[in-house]
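Hi all, a correction to my earlier message: I attached the wrong file for DUF416 family protein. Here's the right sequence:
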Amino acid sequence: MTDRLPVEGQLRTLDHIKLAAYCAALTERQFPNFALFSSLVEFGDQKQLATILDGVWQSLVPGGAKMNFEVQLDKVENNMPDLDEFEMYGASPALDAVVSLYSTLVCLLEADVDEAVAVGNVSREAVATFIEVSEGDDQMSDEEIIRFITNHELMIQEDEFQETVVERLLNTKQLDRDFVKSLRELARNEGFSNIGISTEDI
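and the right structure:
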């Protein structure tokens, strides 16, 4: 939808562990999208992915439990729905959530800021696609659609969420247990995903 992630410049100033925390927060917020799809079509292992995501959060805390993330990459990849196989729309945000988890692991392993930027873009694109699919009008021009998506409440919430996460990370010297716990709580968004799916629907 946009060529550049709004928070990209700030992301490039963050250290390795803070980049991973940003990725984890965005993945956490997207996770209900995969969980609902998984429950509806009986695809994948949401418990396995939830355990891996939990391991990511634990690894962010100094002295926290460490998971072999290299081993987990294949497990995450095996949970990616094939969009050619599933024609229903829900497969797309589900895939985005799993791709974000995969990129989070790569970010932890390789300290790659581009993986963090990719997670941010994936989350925004998921919101943009949802808005277009659910509320778009075929009569709109491309410019009108972009304007409609940019000013939509869900996209505003998405950008505000990403900005809040980055701001918190910029304003803390070191991640500790309380900080990680509060960041995860923010990301859980009272049980609602970035496209408004509730954990109560699952």
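Sorry for the mix-up. The domain at 8-187 is CATH 1.20.1590.10 (YP_001051499.1 fold like).
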